[in-house]
Amino acid sequence: MADRQSTPAPTDSGSAGSSRTATAGVRRVLARVGARTADSRDVALAVASAVVTVALLGLLRAADLLLGTARTGTDTQVAAVVVLAVVQCAPLVVRRRRPVATLLTVAVVQAALLAAVPTGVALWGVAPVVAAATVGAARPPAAAVRAIVAAVGIAAVGAVVGATGTVTALLGAAPRSDTLTVVLGAVAVVLTAVVVNGASAAVGSWTALRRAHARAAEERAAEAVEHQATRTRAAVAAERTRMARELHDVAAHHLTGLVVQAGAAERLVDVDPERAKDSVRSIREQGRETLQALRAIVGILRETGDDATGTAPVPGLADVGDLVDAARASGQVVVTRIDGTLPDLAPLADVTAYRTVQEALVNARRHAAGAPALLGVSADADRVTITVENDLGPSEAPAGPPGHGLVGMRERATLVGGRLRAGPVAGGRWRVRLDLDTRSTT
Question: Band of the pLDDT at 71, cuts 50, 70, 90?
Answer without folding.
Answer: low
